[in-house]
Amino acid sequence: MAVLERLNDLIWGFPMLVLLMGTHIYFTIKLHFPQKNLIYALKLSLGKTDNEGRNLSPFSALATTLAATLGTGNIIGVSTAVALGGPGAIFWCWITGILGMATAYSECYLSVLFRAQNSDGTYVGGPMYVLKNGLHNRNLGSLYAVCTLMAAFGVGCTTQANSVTQAASASFHLSPHLVGIALSILTGIVIIGGVRSIANLCERTVPAISFFYLLGCALLLILYHRVLPSACLLILKDAFSFGSVAGGVAGATLQHAVRYGVARGLFTNEAGIGTSAIAAAASHATEPRTQAYVSMTAVFWDTVVMCLITGLVIVSNMLYDPASVAGIAETGLTAAAFNHLPYVGDAFLTISLAAFAITTLIGWSYFGEKATEYLMGQKGIPFYKLAYILMIYLGAIIPMRLVWESTDLINAMMVLPNVLALYCLRRQIKA
């Protein structure tokens, strides 16, 4: 644990933060602020079309991306960001989402441009194919695929399973082993059915789960309405503070706020990591620009909307009921806020966490499957699926801090080859 913490402090220091934010800003300017076309992009994403053959519709690709990104990062991740980086981390997480839409657009554009087609007519792509077909460097593509495979077992499995275990144990006193087995079975049933089974589930469940969670947040913000303006001011003030954070959750500086805000923002929306481009490449959209706009909206929904609202709920609760967060674990700030929902607070958050985690487990299984296919061909996919299901169970019983520190390290390892491809092929990306 100590080694991981030191590594992450080194890797996620000033150079990495500059690289990520610099990339977001660079492509925002280069592409003439694609964020200004957000309404157009949302119309494209909501205009559901039928799947074509064995490929996905743009909406299905978006739903699969959101399934992988909407999850514990929006609930537990935001809690740890505030606990370790202070309320100001919410601002930097939000900025990462706003600017990260341009990076997501660029990643998905290149992924569709340089994707490959299998003998059965299905499209496959992602940063590994961009590195292979765009930069003509198969070794870098293999490196990214290995990192994606590690992330699938780490980010996709352990983080989600562990978060559900913690919530279920606290709310319903369920055994971690029982929760791990149940998650493994539920996820296994879906992923064995292949990409169409995954996409169909994501299309039906992701919008409903998101609405359910946002409804709970809205009720809490109504309850906290008197302290909500103060919460907004506190977030802005601490975002640029060089002293200790208000609220007594943790000692934090500007560097901590930026470090944890950007890291958690990256974890939840994955702009800069490039995994959303894997789902984008599976779309039957023939125009890279179209799918790039559709996939860009995933960052908007995930970070600009979901993370911001969760952050407002957490910080408002810190002001509304300071005693509820005194001495609480870094992962428990969201739960402390939801405890104010009469009668159903614990159960509401636990059900939301479990639902998000299951969809994230399913979405990330697809990313790992495509990485396995790149490295070993389709013959390796059955072995990967079995290993993935087993890792869900193991993730349910791993200590939480170890899970999050490992997640930050894996994310950093994926950023470098992906960002290299973006800069080297920047002339190929059309505004």
What does this structure look like?
This protein is mainly alpha-helical and 431 residues long. It has 18 helices and 2 strands. A two-stranded antiparallel sheet has the order 1-2. Helix 8 crosses helix 9. It is globular. About 2% of the residues have low confidence.
Spatial extent as radius of gyration: 20 Å
**Helical percentage:** over 70%
The fraction of residues assigned to DSSP E strands is under 5%
What is the count of DSSP helices, taking H or I runs of 4+ residues? 18
The number of E-state strands comes to: 2
Q: What does the largest sheet look like? A: 2 strands, antiparallel
Morphology: globular
Briefly, what is this?
The protein is mostly helical and 431 residues long. It has helices at 2-11, 14-30, 38-46, 58-69, 72-85, 88-113, 127-134, 138-172, 176-191, 195-223, 228-239, 254-269, 276-281, 288-320, 333-338, 345-376, 381-395, 400-424, and strands at 116-117, 123-124.
Any chance you could write out the topology, listing elements then pairs?
Elements: H1 2-11, H2 14-30, H3 38-46, H4 58-69, H5 72-85, H6 88-113, E1 116-117, E2 123-124, H7 127-134, H8 138-172, H9 176-191, H10 195-223, H11 228-239, H12 254-269, H13 276-281, H14 288-320, H15 333-338, H16 345-376, H17 381-395, H18 400-424
Antiparallel strand pairs: 1-2
Helix pairs in contact: 1-18, 2-6, 2-12, 3-14, 4-10, 4-14, 4-16, 5-12, 5-14, 6-7, 6-11, 6-12, 6-14, 7-8, 8-9, 8-16, 8-17, 8-18, 9-16, 9-17, 10-14, 10-16, 11-14, 16-17
